[in-house]
Design goal:
The chain is built from 8 helices and 20 strands. It is an alpha+beta fold. The strands form 6 sheets. Strands 6-7-12-10-11 form a 5-stranded antiparallel sheet, with no helix packed on it. The protein has a 4-stranded mixed sheet with strand order 1-2-5-3, with helices on one face. Helix 4 packs across helix 5.
Length: 337
């Protein structure tokens, strides 16, 4: 087991916040993970897990053991004429996994192209974009209990997937380290191109030819045009969840704000958080070296050397202003450390 002491986490988070960690261990296989878990249990130390570092905001020195997950590998475990089941280890980069599937013409993940982070984080968040969520393809999640060191396979129904939610964020929060995710992909998929500008890009760039690769490429282009590259500007993607409210409240708001975009379900309605934030005047806001992105109000950014507390305070001000104007409570999607 290798531990580095008093290490900066600057290179391990996409917000580019320079906070120190008392102990850091980079793991590349299950044996190294097992040793780390034995160590924290024996010494009663807190455990922090970093995958791609794209969903955390550091606000102070991290005391305890920080694991950087580099457990890699993707394999086909079952295949028929209609579908293929793949198993991806949790330390794989999510977008790299998507493109691996796209290149093999396995359908189901193309709408989730260019989402930052690792495969291990995907089921925790039940990541989603452009009308598709991970729960639609996830068969099972393999995990190890942090304290008992027992392995468990969570079948799809046991994952309790919801909107940006799962059992790993609720009942089992902090209890498991995800080892791998098994997904069922289609060889003859039904494409989902109803959201955003997908159809426009397909028409302009791909002559309306539907294919797994064309849809993936279209979504990559859309995301690059709207979201800042974390290699250039520190950010963690969408900082807030899109709020889901009761239909009755949505109808009342629609009467007050006829232009408010809404996506209605059976008993609830989803409102784009970006629209709410923009209406409150935050889009493009800047305070020195941090602010709200000029092209996407959902994204808070660190232009250079911002402190995590500054960004937390900014998010609190945004939440308060949206609550006061629309009586809607925004929820942070990013984990605050």
């Amino acid at each position: 087991m290798n531990i580095a002491y008093n290490q900066s986490l600057l290179g391990y988070n996409t917000f580019h916040i320079d906070e120190m960690a008392s102990e850091v261990s980079i793991i590349e296989d299950e044996q190294q993970l097992f040793e780390c878990l034995q160590y924290i249990n024996k010494n009663q130390k807190p455990l922090f897990i970093i995958g791609g570092g794209s969903n955390i905001l550091l606000t102070h020195r991290v005391e305890g053991l920080t694991i950087v997950n580099k457990i890699k590998g993707i394999e086909v475990i079952q295949e028929t004429d209609e579908f293929v089941d793949i198993k991806s280890m949790s330390g794989e980069n999510w977008h790299a996994c998507v493109r691996w599937c796209v290149e093999k013409n396995y359908g189901g993940l193309e709408n989730l192209s260019l989402i930052p982070g690792t495969v291990g984080a995907a089921p925790i968040q039940n990541i989603g974009a452009y009308g598709v969520e991970l729960q639609e393809v996830c068969l099972s999640v393999e995990a190890i209990h942090i304290h008992t060191l027992q392995k468990r396979i969570f079948q799809h129904h046991e994952c309790a997937f919801g909107y940006r939610d799962s059992v790993f964020k609720q009942q089992e929060k902090g209890n498991y380290f995800i080892l791998s995710v098994t997904m069922r992909l289609q060889k003859n998929p039904t494409f989902n191109i109803a959201y955003g500008d997908i159809q426009k890009i397909l028409a302009l760039d791909f002559n309306n030819i539907l294919s797994i690769k064309n849809i993936s490429d279209a979504i990559i282009k859309i995301r690059k045009s709207k979201l800042p590259n974390p290699d250039e500007i520190g950010n963690a993607g969408s900082f807030f969840k899109n709020p889901v409210i009761a239909n009755a409240q949505a109808e009342s708001l629609k009467n007050q704000y006829p232009n408010m975009p809404m996506y209605a379900f059976a008993t609830e309605t989803k409102i784009p958080a970006a629209w709410l934030i923009e209406q409150c005047g935050w889009k493009g806001y800047r305070n020195g070296n941090y602010g709200v992105h000029t092209q996407q109000a959902l994204v808070l950014v660190n232009y250079a050397n911002a402190h995590g507390h500054d960004i937390v305070d900014l998010s609190t001000s945004i939440i308060t202003s949206v609550q006061q104007r629309f009586n809607i409570q925004l929820e942070r999607e990013v984990n605050i450390w």
